């Protein structure tokens, strides 16, 4: 309703409730300027916050951005960053409502996303129950494969390898599947930011259940397979533990007819923790303080 230019913005909340999420991105930790363009950084920073809102079953409406930048940062870099924010917001019909800028030794981004539930109940992490199924929408393992290629200094000499690297630079969350999952009766949901095992572990712990995954149920993408062949790596390891694709993982009642955009990969049973059939695996994924 009122964007940048005043001390604060005005954002409509037609549902009467506002979904709020925030993330912090630091240069050298979450992105590198020699690996990603400013436009990619803007798209990625917006995407990971908008995906959190979608994972609650809400439609994103606005972003507020805190930005720390070095004094010698080229204006063209900042232009690319803001273009990235604008274009990622446009995917979901949201906008940048405002923010703040300060001088800093590194590029630091603090992004807060707002969303509207449209009268639906928020889909939390503690609603998984034995007998339900676990399904995933969106890509898994692509960003991790791209990061591994960049870390190894392997040139993206094929289309598949280039797509893996592009996935690290710019995720493509299935935003529309969050509200759709809520309408289909999802009882628990989250976005996969730190790795599927790590994130589903939060659902299992919050719900007091065990989640069992079938490794044969996962469709491993061509970019992941190509990167694994190039680096002699296990592609399923990236699928299960790789983060930053911002896919959505949700728990549905058994028997619910899911659209083709959702892939059933496991089930909920009595117990605790995560089990992957036929594989000895820890939680994996990313934990800042492990």
Automatic annotation (TrEMBL):
It catalyses: thiamine phosphate + ATP = thiamine diphosphate + ADP. Pathway: Cofactor biosynthesis; thiamine diphosphate biosynthesis; thiamine diphosphate from thiamine phosphate: step 1/1. Keywords: ATP-binding, Kinase, Magnesium, Metal-binding, Nucleotide-binding, Thiamine biosynthesis, Transferase. Mg(2+) 4 binds at residues 7, 21, 52. Its EC number is 2.7.4.16. It is an enzyme of class 2 (transferase). ATP binds at residues 99-100, 125, 193. Pfam families: AIRS. This is Thiamine-monophosphate kinase. It comes from Nonomuraea wenchangensis.
């Amino acid at each position: 309703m009122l964007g940048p230019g005043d001390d604060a913005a005005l954002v409509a909340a037609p549902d009467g409730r506002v979904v709020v999420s925030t993330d912090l991105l630091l240069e050298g930790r979450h992105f590198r300027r020699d690996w990603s363009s400013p436009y990619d950084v803007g798209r990625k920073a917006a995407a990971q916050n908008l995906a959190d809102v979608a994972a609650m079953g809400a439609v994103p409406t606005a972003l507020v951005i805190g930005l720390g930048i070095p004094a010698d940062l080229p204006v063209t870099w900042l232009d690319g960053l803001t273009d990235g924010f604008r274009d990622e917001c446009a995917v979901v019909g949201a906008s940048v409502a405002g923010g703040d800028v300060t001088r800093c030794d590194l590029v630091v981004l603090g992004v807060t996303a707002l969303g509207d539930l449209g009268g639906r109940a928020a889909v939390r992490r503690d609603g998984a129950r034995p007998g339900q199924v676990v399904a995933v929408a969106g890509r898994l393992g692509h960003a991790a494969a791209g990061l591994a290629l960049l870390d190894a200094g392997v040139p993206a000499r094929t289309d598949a390898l280039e797509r893996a690297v592009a996935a690290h630079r710019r995720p493509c969350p299935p935003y529309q599947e969050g509200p759709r999952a809520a309408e289909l009766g999802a009882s628990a949901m989250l976005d996969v930011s730190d790795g599927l095992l790590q994130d589903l572990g939060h659902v299992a712990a919050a719900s007091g259940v065990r989640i069992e995954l079938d490794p044969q149920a996962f469709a491993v993408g061509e970019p992941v397979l190509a990167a694994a062949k190039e680096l002699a790596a296990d592609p399923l390891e990236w699928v299960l533990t790789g983060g930053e694709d911002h896919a959505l993982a949700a728990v549905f009642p058994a028997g619910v007819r899911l659209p083709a955009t959702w892939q059933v990969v496991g089930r909920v049973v009595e117990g605790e923790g995560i089990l992957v059939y036929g594989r000895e695996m820890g939680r994996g994924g990313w934990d800042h303080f492990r």
